[in-house]
Automatic annotation (TrEMBL):
Annotated membrane topology: Multi-pass membrane protein
Primary localization: membrane
Domain (Signal transduction histidine kinase 5TM receptor LytS transmembrane region) ranges: 32-153
Pfam families (alphabetical): 5TM-5TMR_LYT (PF07694)
Listed GO CC annotations: plasma membrane
Gene Ontology biological process terms, A to Z: cell wall organization
Membrane-spanning ranges: 6-24, 44-62, 74-97, 104-127, 133-153
One example GO MF annotation: phosphorelay sensor kinase activity
Location within or outside the cell: Cell membrane
The protein, known as: LytS/YhcK type 5TM receptor domain-containing protein
UniProt entry keywords in alphabetical sequence: Cell membrane, Membrane, Receptor, Transmembrane, Transmembrane helix
Length: 184
């Protein structure tokens, strides 16, 4: 599968999440969340909705070399960016536990990274005091979240195989290549 085909497949599956998000945007609770005045009930609803979007992102995954390319982070990160660290981490737990039970050699690390990425989105929410988070800040948060996820996956694999020193050397080599290919 080439990169263009993979991009098309993931874009199609991401559009399902966007459609669900549009439908949910008609809920009054989301209006209160966007105005940064949510009730505890609103935050709980947002946690479950974003966790569900994360699960949808996992269902829309494409297998590549035994791992899953997916859009799980979208729902989880949106939970954090809209509701704060507890909402993001809660959505991450929902999507992460689901991912863990899907199985595979990255099950634990991907499940853990969903929680961390949701929490990270919530940290961005906490420190962005100027109203709604603009798209470019949300994009950068998602980009940073993916880097965090790759670090967690590689670290978990290195710990499992006892190759910690190799991991550090590999990161020295891979990180500049990752940025070179993804910032074009």
């Amino acid at each position: 599968m080439d990169i263009l085909e993979l991009t098309l497949i993931l874009s199609q599956r991401l559009s399902i999440i966007a459609t669900v998000a549009f439908i949910l945007s008609r809920m009054p609770a989301l209006g209160r969340v966007l105005s940064r005045k949510p009730s505890t009930k609103d935050k709980l609803i947002l946690t479950f909705v974003c966790g569900g979007l994360g699960i949808l992102g996992t269902f829309g995954a494409v297998e590549i070399h035994g791992a899953l390319a997916n859009s799980r982070v979208v729902g989880v990160m949106v939970g954090g960016l809209l509701g704060g660290p507890l909402v993001g981490a809660g959505a991450g737990v929902i999507a992460g536990v689901h991912r863990y039970f899907v199985g595979g050699f990255t099950a634990f690390s991907c499940g853990l990274s969903a929680v961390v990425e949701g929490f990270f989105g919530g940290v961005v929410y906490k420190y962005w005091r100027k109203g709604l988070i603009p798209w470019h800040v949300a994009w950068l948060a998602g980009f940073a979240g993916e880097i965090i996820q790759m670090f967690i996956i590689k670290s978990a694999h290195a710990i499992k195989t006892g190759e910690i020193q190799m991991l550090l050397l590999k990161w020295q080599e891979d990180l500049p290549i990752y940025f070179q290919h993804n910032l074009k």
